[in-house]
Amino acid sequence: KPARVQVDPETIPQDDAPPQTGTVFNIWYNKWSGGGNQFQLVKSKYKLNVEKDSGYTRANKIDGQKYFCLFFAKGMCTKGRKCEYLHRIPNDLDFFPQTVDCFGREKFSEYRDDMSGIGSFNTVNKTLYIGGLIIKDNTQDLLNKEFRKLGKIAKINVINNKNCGFITFKNESSAQFAKEAMFGQSLYGTDILNIKWANEDPNPAAIKAKKRQHEEETQQVVEQLL
C-alpha cells in the first residue's frame, strides 16, 4: 500500500521541518535530539504507528542504496508516498556502509561525551540506553511491547534502582531506527524517554564475542544477498 501522510504539513512550524541532510539539518537535529547546553527533554507530539504508517514511497522505485525517513520514524513525515526515503522499519537484508546510519547521516569517529547523537563509525553498537523510566511491575513488559514493533530484540535489561534500562537489538540499523522513533516518547504518560547509545562493555571477553557475532552476521547478510 502507498505510505500515508502522517502529519498535515500545515500543522508543522517551518523550523520543525528542515531538509533531512546537510548543514541546516545537522544544526537543527543537534538542537532537536539533545545536543547543546540548553537541551530540555520534551515529550514528542508525534508517534510512529508502524502498521498504519508503513507503505511504499518514491524510494521503493530507486535502484541502489536507499535510506529510511527520519521523519517517518518520528511519526511526522508530511510527504507520504511522495517521500524520497523508505517508510518501513529496517530488516535483516538492509545493509549500510559503516560510515553512515540507516537514515543516511554521517557518523563520527567518536561518540559524543553524553552518548547522544548519530554514533561512531568505529563501533557496531546495537544497544540503547533508555533513561527517564518510571519503574513499575510491568515496565520491562511495556518496553518489550513498544520496542519490538521496531525490530528484533536480543535482550532487555531494566535497572530498577537507577530508573533506566538497556535494550539490545539483533541489528544495528534497528537500534538506530528505534533510538529516533522512541526518543521523547512516553510509556505511562508522565514519563519522557531519553534514549542514548550504551557504552561498550569493557570486559575483553564481551568485546571478543561482539566482534565474532558481527563477523558472523556480516557473512549471513552476504550469503542472503547472493
Automatic annotation (TrEMBL):
Residues 63-90 form the C3H1-type domain. SMART domains: RRM. It is found in: Nucleus. The keyword Lipid metabolism does not apply. One of its GO terms (cellular component) is U2-type catalytic step 2 spliceosome. It comes from the Eukaryota. Pfam families: RRM_1, Torus. GO terms for molecular function: pre-mRNA binding; U6 snRNA binding; zinc ion binding. A zinc finger (C3H1-type) spans 63-90. Residues 126-200 form the RRM domain. GO terms for biological process: mRNA cis splicing, via spliceosome; positive regulation of cell cycle; positive regulation of RNA splicing; spliceosomal snRNP assembly. Keywords: Cell cycle, Metal-binding, mRNA processing, mRNA splicing, Nucleus, RNA-binding, Spliceosome, Zinc, Zinc-finger. Associated with the spliceosome. Involved in the first step of pre-mRNA splicing. Required for cell growth and cell cycle control. Plays a role in the levels of the U1, U4, U5 and U6 snRNAs and the maintenance of the U4/U6 snRNA complex. May provide the link between the 'nineteen complex' NTC spliceosome protein complex and the spliceosome through the U6 snRNA. Associates predominantly with U6 snRNAs in assembled active spliceosomes. Binds directly to the internal stem-loop (ISL) domain of the U6 snRNA and to the pre-mRNA intron near the 5' splice site during the activation and catalytic phases of the spliceosome cycle. Belongs to the RRM CWC2 family. This is Pre-mRNA-splicing factor CWC2. It comes from Wickerhamomyces anomalus (strain ATCC 58044 / CBS 1984 / NCYC 433 / NRRL Y-366-8) (Yeast). The lineage of its organism: Eukaryota, Fungi, Dikarya, Ascomycota, Saccharomycotina.
